[in-house]
Amino acid sequence: MTGLPARIAWNLRHRWRRVFALLVVGGGVVAPLVTGLWWTLPLVWFVGLFVVLPVLHTLTRPLPERDGRGDADASEADPALDALRERYARGEIDEREFERKLDRLLETEDAETVDPSDDGVGDRVREGIRREVERIRE
């Protein structure tokens, strides 16, 4: 499927709320002409936009991950940092050991991720991980 049919299928799949809203507005305009009753316009608009659309949106929303983490967190997860967090949470290592291992982990990440020609990237990486550690401690 290429060209116009593919674009239409993609738009219906990803922008169905907009398509539905346009259909409701069009149906609201046509309803009084077909029925001869003026009050069918606000009725169709209200029911379509304030009742049916939120219900459909709720039913078609993707389910959250079971562990409570979002898709962005799961794709960017660092297994070494996760293992270190778990050991600290279980009490296998104390705070001093956690800090020491975290610093070592940061040094190896800095060496892997920092481009020597780019100034300040290592500091930003360190600061981001330190913020993550502060969040874990709370």
Describe the protein:
This protein is mainly alpha-helical and 138 residues long. It is built from seven helices and no strands. It has helices at residues 4-14, 16-35, 40-60, 71-75, 79-90, 95-113, 121-137. The protein is elongated, with a radius of gyration of 26 Å. It starts with a helix and ends with a helix. 3% of the residues are buried. Mean pLDDT is 78; it is low at 70-75.
Radius of gyration: 26 Å
The helix/strand class is mainly alpha
Helix tally equals 7
Structure summary, number of beta strands? 0
Average pLDDT taken over every residue: 78
Give the proportion of residues in helices.
over 70%
Write the H/E string, N to C: HHHHHHH
How would a textbook summarize the main sheet?
Answer: none
Give the end-to-end Cα distance, rounded to a whole number of Å: 52 Å
Give the uncertain stretches in residue-range form. Answer: 70-75
Q: In what range is the share of β-strand residues?
A: under 5%
Question: What spatial form do the alpha-carbon principal axes imply?
Answer: elongated
Which helices and strands appear, and what pairs or packs with what?
Elements: H1 4-14, H2 16-35, H3 40-60, H4 71-75, H5 79-90, H6 95-113, H7 121-137
Offer a quick outline of the entry:
The chain has 138 residues and is mainly α. It has helices at 4-14, 16-35, 40-60, 71-75, 79-90, 95-113, 121-137.
Characteristics:
single chain, mainly alpha, 7 helices, elongated
